[in-house]
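Can you give me the bound-state structure? Components:
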Amino acid sequence: MSDVKNILLAGVGGQGILLASEVLSEVVLMAGLDVKKNEIHGMSQRGGSVVSHVRYGKKVFSSIIPEGDVDILFSFELLEACRYLPLMRKNGRVIANNWQISPPSVARGVQAYPEKLPEKICEMYPESLIVDGLELALAAGNPKTVNTVLLGALSNKLEFKKEMWLEALEKMIPARLLDVNLNAFESGCQVC
Amino acid sequence: MKKVLLSGNEAIARGTYEAGALVACAYPGTPSTEILENITQYKEIDASWAPNEKVALEVGIGACFGGARALVTMKHVGVNVAADPLFTLAYTGVRGGLVLVTADDPELHSSQNEQDNRNFAKFAKVPMLEPADSQEALEYTKLAFEISEKFDTPVMLRSTTRISHSKSAVVLGKRPSEIPQPKLERNPAKLVMLPGNARKRHLIVEQRTLDLEEWGCSQPFNTIEKGDGKIGVITSGVSYQYVKETLPDADVLKLGMVYPLPKQLIRDFAAKYDTLYVIEELDPFIEEQVRAMGIEVIGKDKLSICGELTPGRIKFQLFGEEAPAEDTSEELPPRPPNMCPGCPHRGVFYELKKAKAFVTGDIGCYTLGFMPPLSAMDTCICMGASVGMATGMTKVLSEEEQRKVVAVIGDSTFLHTGVNGLMDMVYNKSKATLIILDNRITAMTGRQENPTSGYQLNEMEAPRVDMEQLCRAVGVKHVTILDPYDLEMTGKVIRAEMARPEVSVIITTKPCMLVPRDNQNPRPPLFVDHDKCTGCRACLQIGCPAITFDVENKKAIVDKIICTGCKVCQQTCGFDAFQECGE
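Here's the bound-state model for the whole set.
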């Protein structure tokens, strides 16, 4: 199954992870590859952890990424990235939003948010990329476009042509929000 | 051929459309909910939410007896509720095809148990199909309608969370251009299940199962995929995908119909291998039947009955190869779901905890009242159970303890099966208190309309059940309407009704914060005046996601972006530190 590429998207309910995985899957389908995407809804809508698996290649069977085979861990939040690090391949890559959202125990001051996560991630996976998603989204004109900024950063590391990403975005984002999202995507593409 | 990405649920909806069905009915439940939501795009199908799964199935049966094809969907535990009509529908058979989708939830991603509803197919004596991806979900839905009519039986289609919520590429077909107008047709010997008729029908049911078993041996949905011939695997549904991932060289008998099993096909397949596996999630459903045929297999002696399968778990459980898992260590703070900022349920649970109530809980967003720091739910079994359980408890407790028992249930769950418990409360003079959290929506499954919403599934306006009048009509004398954002009043009313040694009902009436039409006048968010905040942490006891505690400065902070201005936190503060922004 070595020709199958595995991307695990992680984050917190409400961050736009499911839309991002939709766009990614759409791009893969446009490229004529087989794709499967899998996620857990339900309770996660209430601010819980959200995780989505995207797998593509000539032929994909399991929609769950086999444990230890994650090529890219694409996380919208640092603690959530940390949770799924053990599922990575040895030479995998993390693309993570430089953002902390306190889970309930941290918000109540009962537990501490783990320190120095960007450093820890980059030490374990030297090819990793930490993206200042909110800063770039604000510069693009709308703080809610963090997910599109991050998709831009991801697109740099994948084999699909930029035009396909733009086409998928045009197809899946409402017209009134398209321009600001295209800006956001572009600024994500500049991250390296 | 153009391919589109569809989830299993979207594909089932599409398959129903392509099968020419005229009716679809359901009660929402994860992971089944999106099937009906997606069917609304096909205007040819009358799609509706029923108050519970039993009614949904009965509506489906009516449409089918009227002569149309009908789809009924539910989550696994919903079939428990619909079991009564199902078991006798198995006897009557159908006129138009009837397909019942059960969406099971191995691993309990969003459920209270992990029951394997393949057992229902065997128990009710109806055939069951199990797709392994979205293309099959579409094809098998159409096939299920065909089998239903060909064999005069309801057909179950079993999905699981990983089928319902996974997307894969699908080639679409077309809906038949002409669907005949259904007409009444009397056939009491078949449709009136009195003992004399039902005895005759039972014989037909048993023969039907034998016929299906034989027919299934030569059908393409039960298929053998050749590998290198060394080991054989019998599997079905999503497990098939994990088998292809972990045992790419095995010969595989993939079962599209998991009940009844194609016994001769299995015998012929099994005869070729010294090592034969049955790889299936949850119960040894296929395995036990294969073993009963005298065939030795490797199955649940190695694979776990609990939880879902994954490629890594199969490798570990069958071959001892260690597979990594996500980090669940204690140092990593967990991120469980939580009541939303501004949720009208929060204040009720805060006051229930203060009143030291013993809360019999129910199924919905408010089940999260169990989570710390609210920690104010003591039981949760199934839809509607809170009410009867409260009554039962008060029957055995001392007078002092009786007063502590409070049942808490949401509007949708109350109308689902809670209202029967309320009739019992009145009829049998229960001493318990019932709180109905009426937020006018079935919130937990993603905000579906229900008879208290004022809207139908297709967004058409509908009459609203008047909760207060309903309670009074069944005989409740003490009904109090409550604004749950007023903590002082909430606490006072809860204590007063707990103390009352007869049935009383409290109804909260604030809508879910996530329903835009019910929240058209946004309130300004709050902020914490740090000159006044003493760092006492009282506000943290409501568990609002908008409030965090700055450990360094020992002050509470409100996240203005997510604060809805409900002011519950303000009422917990003894120092007037919470102020409205913009004042």
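A couple of observations. Chain B touches chain A through 55 residues (CB under 8 Å). The longest strand of chain B covers residues 98-104.
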